[in-house]
Amino acid sequence: MTALSTRHLLGIKDLTENDLQLVFQTADEFKEVLNRPIKRVPSLRDVTIANVFFENSTRTRLSFELAEKRLSADVVNFSSSGSSVKKGETLLDTVNNILAMKVDMIVMRHASPGAPHFLASRINAGPHPANVINAGDGTHEHPTQALLDAFSIREKLGDLVGKKIAIIGDILHSRVALSNIFCLKKLGADVMVCGPSTLIPRYIADLGVLVSHDVREALRWCDVANVLRIQLERLQVKYFPSLREYALYFGINRQMLDELNKEIVLMHPGPINRGVELTSDAADSRHSIILNQVENGVAVRMAVLYLLAAQN
What percent of the chain is modeled with pLDDT above 90? Predict the structure, then answer.
């Protein structure tokens, strides 16, 4: 298979296992490019990509922008904070104006779940077709984060079939957790979610994952611990008494890792609340591949951009 089965990357749920493997193989090639003295290739020359971020982002936005520039694309950055959205302009009007400028691809982050799907359906029916990439929609999905997480595990441990992955933390508000579950299950991994009962969605077990409320049990079970940030900006009510209590019962420290009778891989999508979900001595330990995730994010996003552009 040499092409993705979809014109847009809206969620991992829409991808096949063949799609996932194609992204990983392409990312392998781009990672070699990133390790050369000259890190730029002309693959997307004359392709214009708009980064349309209606929600704050640092890592994802920088990673996409760097990936686009490494591929020699023309890049336009849009932020709602300094735009006509503040004057009442709708999402559709904003994007139609961007498309009228003959943009070929749109990378969009939005606080509303389903916003990229809404956009893709309008673009497909409109006069200016463009590819849409979901860079995170509310608490729904974050597909490129799941792809780079799975790519990083594959790089460290090889095939994911039968590997045990624990996703620990704020599952309820996390788009990373849902995309990771879809991605890891498609690749044959076993998945456990772990966190306070108030931060575990009620029907999460229907997705074929194990559920635990004991972080030490999760660490003993897993080969990989993907630790999620407490999403303070999304907590409208109190889901636990205090950050200090969360850290006491669900935080991971170096001593806990050293007490395991095995080596595990420690991951985090960033940014880390140091001293809450992870202590510094755990985040910076030999178990951690957090900085590898950042590096792999550029290669994986280069692969996604390249493969979607090839369909036009």
Answer: 68
Residue with tokens 């004991």: 214
Q: What is the pTM of this model?
A: 0.93
Q: What is the rounded distance in angstroms from the CA atom of residue 180 to the CA atom of residue 170?
A: 13
Please tell me the total number of residues recorded for the chain in this structure.
312
- Cβ neighbors of 104 (< 8 A, separation 6 or more) are 47, 48, 49, 130, 131, 309, 312
CB-CB contact of 67 with 31 (8 Å): no
pLDDT the model gives residue 221: 98
- For 120, residues 6+ apart whose C-beta sits below 8 A from its C-beta are 7, 8, 10, 132
Superfamily of domain 12-141+294-309: Aspartate/ornithine carbamoyltransferase (3.40.50.1370)
Q: Is 142 a known active-site residue?
A: yes
Q: Reading across the β-sheet that carries 164-168, which strands appear in turn?
A: 210-212, 190-194, 164-168, 224-227, 265-267
Task: Spell out the domain ranges in the chain.
Answer: 12-141+294-309, 143-292
Rounded Cα–Cα distance for residues 187 and 163 (Å): 10
Yes or no: say if 77 and 48 are a contact pair by the CB < 8 Å rule. Answer: no
Catalytic position from the list 8, 26, 31, 60: 60
pLDDT digits (tens, 9 = 90+) for 80-101: 655 555 445 677 787 778 778 8
Told to judge if 60 belongs to the known catalytic residues of this protein, a careful annotator would answer: yes
What's the fold here for domain 143-292?
Rossmann fold (3.40.50)
Q: Note if 87 is an active site residue.
A: yes
Measured distance CA(312)–CA(304) in Å, rounded: 14
Q: Which residue is catalytic, options 142, 173, 186, 287?
A: 142
Per-residue pLDDT tens over the stretch 221-263: 999 999 998 865 544 446 665 778 888 889 999 999 999 989 9
